[in-house]
Amino acid sequence: MNKKDKSFETERLLIKPTTEIDASLIYELLNTPKWIEYIGDRNVHSVDDAKDYIQQKMLPQLEKLGYSNYTVIRKLDGEKVGTCGLYDRKGLEGIDIGFAFLPQFEKQGYAFESVNKLLEVAIHDFKIKQISAITIKTNMASQKLLTKIGMTFKKHIRIPNDEEELMLYTL
Question: How far is the C-alpha of 129 from the C-alpha of 28, rounded, in Å?
Fold first, then answer.
């Protein structure tokens, strides 16, 4: 198995690279009110749009770097609960760690569990030297989680193609 096919496990979760078979999850997730408010509208208005989004935005980085977006699956019942990932973003030093979960699976520790595992994998398996995270000022839940995994707020920044001022966290 090569790096880009690598999946990871926690006590309750399976974390596997997102592919076209996850299009319905991506469609649902990218259209939740919190995604649109905190991350932005990605113009994904159908499952087919979600497949295109995965092919154009997620898979190229997975092919190039061996890591990208991961689908988080609950082991108990195979339910897809959200995503987390390691993103090579323009205008950001290091690799961005990010996460988003469907509303019905929030506040159950899945984000912490998956992001904490991904952070460990980023450092030990992928040998990433600099890990960052970005969020907006109003996303208190993300700020709290980033602090909980050991990241600290560094400064306010702007990245290309995003007019909103973001909060930069680093490890």
Answer: 33
- Sorted by sequence, the CB contacts under 8 Å of residue 108 that are 6+ apart come out as none
Cβ 136 vs Cβ 38: under 8 Å: yes
Instruction: Give me the residue label for tokens 């323009």.
Output: 90
Residue owning tokens 């469907």: 102
Cα dist from 15 to 53, 87, 90, 143, whole Å: 19, 15, 25, 22
Question: Above 70 in pLDDT, residue 91?
Answer: yes
Q: Greatest CA separation found in the chain? A: 41
Both tokens assigned to 16: 């596997």
pLDDT band at 142, cuts 50/70/90?
A: very high
Which domains are seen in the chain, by residue range? Answer: 3-170 (3.40.630.30)
Q: 3-class DSSP state for residue 114? A: helix
Mean pLDDT for the stretch of residues 146-171: 93
Q: How far apart are CA 26 and CA 36, in angstroms?
A: 13
Count of CB atoms situated within 10 Å of the CB of 142: 23
DSSP 27: H
User: Residue 71: beta bridge partners?
Assistant: 16, 83
